[in-house]
Amino acid sequence: MRRLFLLALVMTLSAALILVIGCGSKSTKSELVAGDTTAVEFQMMKELIGQGMLEQDQYLIDLSLALMDEADGAVGKRTYKPVADSSYYIQIVTYDTSNYWHIFGFTASLSQSYGDTVFFEGHDSLRFSNGTGYIALPDSTVTGLNVRAHHQVGIEFPDGSISLRNHASVDLTGTYQVEFTLNGATSDSASFSFYESDTAYCNLDAAINQSFSDLYFDSVALNHDACPASGSIHAEANLTLECVGGSGLSDSLNIAGGWTLNIEFVERTMHASFIHGNVVWNIVEECGPEQGTAQSRWDNLMGKIRDIKD
After folding, report:
1. Entry pTM
2. What is the pLDDT of residues 257-275, one digit of tens each?
3. Distance of alpha carbon 185 from alpha carbon 98, whole angstroms
4. Closest to 44 in 3D by CA, of 272, 204, 211
5. Pairwise CA distance, residues 235 & 204, whole Å
6. CB-hemisphere CA count at 13 Å for 7?
7. Among the listed residues 149, 264, 143, 175, the one whose alpha carbon sits nearest the alpha carbon of residue 214
8. Residue extents of the structural domains in the chain
9. CA distance 227 to 197
10. DSSP 8-state class, residue 78
11. Is 60 exceeded by the pLDDT of residue 299?
12. What is the mean pLDDT of residues 157-186?
């Protein structure tokens, strides 16, 4: 797993002192003016809601999928899962079933090769179907998965910390090893602190709601870690960022307000608009298997789905 997005984000922000536009009142579409894509507030939001929370939600969905192997598990069972350059343990604290739902209470920890440690706790509910109805346990006939999850996450690294709350309601349909469609919504709240010294620091508080509509992952997306072939994402975010001092930052940096993000995937091209006050930033990016864009970061999720046992 890559170093989590906020560390890199704040390190980037602390290297620059740039005037930031204020948050105005809501404007109609006809009043919107084009924004500068080099502006610090746009670069930050592109990282945070264009990349960061999507990536973070991907890892949390992956954590939910890791529990598929424990659908007939016992309380107290502890499992070890290697994942790329990291590994994590899952401890099942409670387990129950109701109306085909597998309901887990769990704790988990993840250690990364570069020193970060991530702690999880929460509840996950999983339900499987095969086209003719719900089934008790997952097998090779599974064509549908419902995930209802509530996670609390704590992240510690040498120069800071992150806390995150995540609520997810996600549905996957399709033959997972070949293709599938994802629909649903997530709600995230995050607090971040990064300290360069006693007098140089950044603090971030953010609340982000995202909805996913008909995100279609075909064989290219599954086998080459590309972005979805089609579908859309909508996100609403509110945040407060304060940076004081730091490398190259002689004064302070403050960004606050509400943002709207709309992404549409068309033939593996990402069309995105970021709106803040009366300013809109529009970007179009190719995101096929050769491009390392934000939306290609569903790789662990793809790998987990490919690894579902017959």
Report:
1. 0.73
2. 898 999 998 987 889 999 9
3. 23
4. 204
5. 18
6. 16
7. 264
8. 5-306
9. 38
10. E
11. no
12. 84
